């Protein structure tokens, strides 16, 4: 396969090759000379601004976006200000930096996204030069103003402008400058004649590259590597100095013998490579400079642009798109002339096997004798990943598969993974897609980013096929792609709402983890409210439906959905929103049509807004609840007059509600309040607010028996209740004499056992014994036991011949001290049991 090495060129210990990626599909009448051009890394899109210096409204510049194969993606006339620089972000958004410091952001299909300013100083002094760079924080913009000052923003998604210090002795535009990334900080390296300065946030530090040729009097051009680790300087003596970006270590210096300033410079360094090289482009010459004195020269037929990549440099001109890179080690070892590497021998063995030649066995034996067959298979697999032509890939993978047949324990994952990767890469390298990714770039980018890029290009079928082929988890793959497709679909105007809603549901029916509310939101933002409502019908989670319905001013529907969900918090959310959005009358009217919401709102008002609760009851003519409201409100009033007034309102409402019991009870409460106030004024006893029960108790405890009896009669308190109250009050007061008089005043409606128990409770057995004789026979045993008279309790229990009472007395007797009583009780118990 000698043709594989036909485009290889040696440079030092390495080889370089130029691989044709695409024949460009575009037609550029004026070529690239009169264009501002920017190409995104990782095989991204290309932006052209034709006639960018035109200022006449009749002949506006034209902004065009193409894929890497030259397929048009977007085109529109530029109607804004003079553009100084184009560039791409890490997420494939196009940045257009204008002369006034305004940066406009477009997506890769030409849709305007947003704009931002680089500050007043830039706006006033105008933009002289701009560089768009990628930092650890995202995409950044660096600007040199007309005042010869640098302004920097390291992340356009979180704009924080930094004005860098002034460069000493800078009277005009610097000969060249570049943005460096050191210690996670972006700095600017400026060349002013023979002097170099590094600008950071606070200082301007002069630097001297170690080993720079003394013949150089100024730096004409500089470039930073893709990884920001290395720096190259081209001096006016024609020397190219290469070293680390911190300017502490020199890698090499080569004399190009060309002293004119180049159009572009770019690093061409493969990851983990030991070879450093820089590509320099003049009008019709491309020069590859490495660590040795030799160089590689390529003649250019037309104006070209260099696009730095992590593993090479892409070269774009009017007709072709090529990749210049160092030949990967695996490819070099296999295809290099007279190579005896294991991979080269395995490839030859497979070729001989296909010819049915016995030499295949000789080659295999030679590899096996060195125990390098596994290494040979790995080399072939790795080399296949670095090759761009599918036929070469297949040849190498067949050789690897052939070698695997003779290995018993070779893990299949490497081979299978490479086959999958190459199938995906070949699909996206097709000119209709136009993403010339290398395998190294693909692994650095990750499959998730690749899917995102396909989605942004609206290549939904391909994105879905890639997800399914690579078995990406559904929520990261197919479902995510379908969601993006649905969001795009609902913005199309060609079909009716009904058709789009049905199509979206049909396609998304089997997909998991997709929120219809997000798709409906996109439809609403596109001005298709009815379509958004139809899509929300497919959303199973009410919590996702309701916020968007409220946003769309579909309040009744939002309230209905919230109620259907059974989620009270969600209902409260809608109700509170409606309360703030609607006038009071419309709000109450809407709640009346939704009993559940009305009930919940009443609950809320009971704890938070009592006045609103009153308005609700008034509107509904709910006199019973209004009466209850006035009663509750009365207890919060400290003044008696206000309390009585509210109670009177409650009485009126209860009568309107035909609830005479509540009305009468409320009237009695008012009468009690007046009585308490009168008594409070006469006797200086704080009684207002007490219940009838507590009022009587308080009066009895202070000896106001007549007033207590007056309340007893006026409020028709039952005899039993009054006797209980007076009994407890006198006992607590310790007025035993009054208690005895009270007991003798008339027959007790509660009996006399309570007198015994209350006296015992207050530790007065003597007083308790006075009432034992008056206790009814049924309660005699309890009374005697209460005062501790076991003898009398025994007599009473035997006399009544009640087995349970006998057992109760027995339980209180001691087997040692009450032997006689126990014997009597046991005989009585036996007699009672016989009966």
UniProtKB/TrEMBL annotation:
Coiled-coil portions: 346-373
Record-given protein name: Vacuolar protein sorting-associated protein 16 homolog
One Pfam family from the record: Vps16_C
Family indicated by similarity: Belongs to the VPS16 family.
Task performed by this protein: Plays a role in vesicle-mediated protein trafficking to lysosomal compartments including the endocytic membrane transport and autophagic pathways. Believed to act as a core component of the putative HOPS and CORVET endosomal tethering complexes.
Localisation per UniProt entry: Late endosome membrane; Lysosome membrane
Keywords, in A-Z order: Coiled coil, Endosome, Lysosome, Membrane, Protein transport, Transport
Organismal lineage: Eukaryota, Metazoa, Chordata, Craniata, Vertebrata
Subunit and interaction comment: Core component of at least two putative endosomal tethering complexes, the homotypic fusion and vacuole protein sorting (HOPS) complex and the class C core vacuole/endosome tethering (CORVET) complex. Their common core is composed of the class C Vps proteins VPS11, VPS16, VPS18 and VPS33A, which in HOPS further associates with VPS39 and VPS41 and in CORVET with VPS8 and TGFBRAP1. Interacts with RAB5C. Interacts with STX17, MON1B. Associates with adapter protein complex 3 (AP-3) and clathrin:AP-3 complexes.
Domain of life: Eukaryota
Membrane topology: Peripheral membrane protein
Every Vps16 N-terminal domain range: 5-416
Domain (Vps16 C-terminal) ranges: 514-829
Single GO MF descriptor: actin binding
GO CC annotations on file: CORVET complex; HOPS complex; late endosome membrane; lysosomal membrane
Keyword Coiled coil: yes
UniProt keyword Transport present: yes
Alphabetical GO biological process terms: endosomal transport; intracellular protein transport; vacuole fusion, non-autophagic
């Amino acid at each position: 396969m000698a043709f594989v090495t036909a485009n290889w060129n040696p440079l030092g210990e390495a080889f370089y090759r130029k691989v044709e990626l695409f024949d460009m599909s575009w037609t550029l009448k004026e070529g690239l000379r009169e264009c501002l051009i920017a190409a995104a890394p990782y095989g991204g899109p290309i932006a052209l601004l034709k006639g960018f210096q035109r200022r006449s409204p009749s002949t506006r510049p034209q902004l065009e976006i193409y894929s890497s194969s030259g397929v048009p993606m977007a085109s529109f006339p530029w109607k804004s200000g003079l553009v100084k620089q184009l560039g791409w972000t890490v997420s494939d958004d196009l940045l257009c930096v204008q002369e006034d410091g305004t940066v406009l952001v477009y997506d890769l299909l030409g849709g305007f996204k947003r704009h931002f300013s680089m500050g007043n100083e830039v706006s006033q002094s105008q933009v002289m030069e701009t560089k768009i760079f990628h930092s650890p924080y995202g995409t950044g913009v660096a600007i040199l103003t007309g005042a010869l000052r640098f302004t920097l923003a390291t992340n356009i998604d979180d704009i924080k402008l930094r004005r860098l210090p002034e460069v000493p002795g800078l009277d005009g535009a610097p000969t060249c400058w570049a943005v460096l990334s050191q210690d996670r900080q972006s700095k600017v390296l400026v060349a002013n004649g023979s002097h170099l300065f590094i600008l950071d946030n606070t200082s301007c530090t002069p630097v001297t590259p170690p080993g720079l040729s003394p013949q150089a009097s100024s730096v004409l051009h500089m470039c930073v590597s893709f990884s920001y680790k290395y720096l190259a300087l081209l001096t006016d003596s024609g020397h190219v100095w290469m070293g680390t970006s911190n300017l502490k270590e020199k890698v090499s210096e080569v004399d190009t013998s060309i002293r004119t300033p180049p159009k572009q410079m770019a690093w061409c360094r493969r990851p983990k490579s030991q070879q450093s090289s820089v590509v320099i482009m003049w009008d019709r010459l491309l020069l590859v400079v490495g660590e040795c004195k030799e160089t590689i020269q390529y003649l250019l037929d037309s104006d070209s642009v260099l696009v730095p990549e992590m593993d090479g440099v892409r070269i774009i001109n009017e007709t072709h798109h090529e990749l210049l890179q160092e030949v990967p080690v695996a490819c070099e070892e296999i295809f290099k002339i007279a190579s005896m590497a294991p991979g080269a021998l395995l490839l030859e063995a497979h070729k001989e096997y296909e010819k049915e030649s016995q030499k295949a066995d000789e080659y295999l034996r030679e590899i096996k004798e060195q125990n390098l067959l596994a290494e040979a298979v790995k080399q072939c697999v790795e080399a296949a990943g670095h090759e761009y032509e599918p036929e070469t890939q297949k040849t190498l993978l067949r050789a690897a598969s052939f070698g695997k047949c003779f290995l018993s324990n070779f893990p299949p994952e490497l081979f299978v993974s490479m086959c999958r990767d190459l199938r995906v890469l070949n699909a996206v390298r097709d000119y209709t897609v136009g993403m010339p990714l290398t395998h190294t770039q693909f692994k650095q980018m990750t499959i998730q980013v690749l899917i995102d890029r396909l989605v942004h290009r609206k290549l939904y079928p391909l994105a879905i096929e890639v997800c399914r082929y690579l078995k990406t988890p559904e929520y990261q793959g197919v479902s995510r792609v379908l969601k993006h497709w649905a969001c795009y679909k609902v913005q199309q105007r060609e079909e009716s709402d009904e058709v789009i809603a049905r199509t979206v549901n049909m396609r998304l029916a089997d997909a998991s983890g997709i929120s219809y509310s997000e798709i409906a939101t996109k439809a609403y933002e596109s001005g298709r409210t009815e379509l958004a409502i139809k899509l929300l019908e497919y959303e199973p989670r009410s919590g996702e439906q309701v916020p968007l319905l409220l946003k769309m001013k579909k309040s009744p529907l939002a309230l209905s959905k919230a109620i259907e969900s059974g989620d009270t918090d969600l209902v409260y959310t809608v109700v509170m929103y409606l309360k703030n959005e609607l006038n009071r009358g419309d709000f109450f009217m809407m709640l009346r049509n939704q009993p559940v919401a009305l009930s919940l709102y009443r609950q809320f008002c009971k704890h938070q807004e009592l006045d609103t609760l009153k308005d609700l009851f008034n509107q509904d003519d709910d006199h019973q609840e209004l009466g209850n409201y006035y009663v509750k409100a009365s207890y919060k009033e400290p003044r008696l007059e206000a309390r009585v007034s509210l109670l009177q309102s409650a009485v009126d409402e209860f009568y309107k509600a035909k609830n005479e019991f509540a009305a009468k009870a409320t009237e009695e409460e008012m009468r009690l309040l007046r009585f308490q106030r009168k008594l409070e004024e006469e006797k200086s006893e704080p009684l207002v607010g007490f219940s009838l029960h507590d009022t009587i108790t308080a009066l009895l405890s202070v000896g106001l028996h007549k007033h207590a009896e007056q309340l007893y009669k006026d409020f028709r308190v039952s005899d039993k209740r009054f006797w209980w109250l007076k009994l407890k009050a006198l006992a607590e007061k310790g007025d035993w004499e009054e208690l005895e008089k009270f007991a003798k005043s008339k027959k007790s409606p509660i009996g006399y056992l309570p007198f015994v128990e209350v006296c015992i409770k207050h530790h007065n057995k003597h007083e308790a014994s006075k009432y034992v004789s008056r206790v009814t026979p049924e309660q005699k045993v309890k009374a005697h036991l209460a005062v501790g008279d076991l003898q009398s309790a025994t007599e009473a229990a035997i006399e009544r011949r009640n087995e349970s009472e006998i057992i109760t007395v027995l339980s209180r007797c001691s087997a040692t001290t009450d032997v006689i009583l126990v014997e009597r009780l046991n005989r009585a118990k036996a007699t009672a049991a016989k009966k």
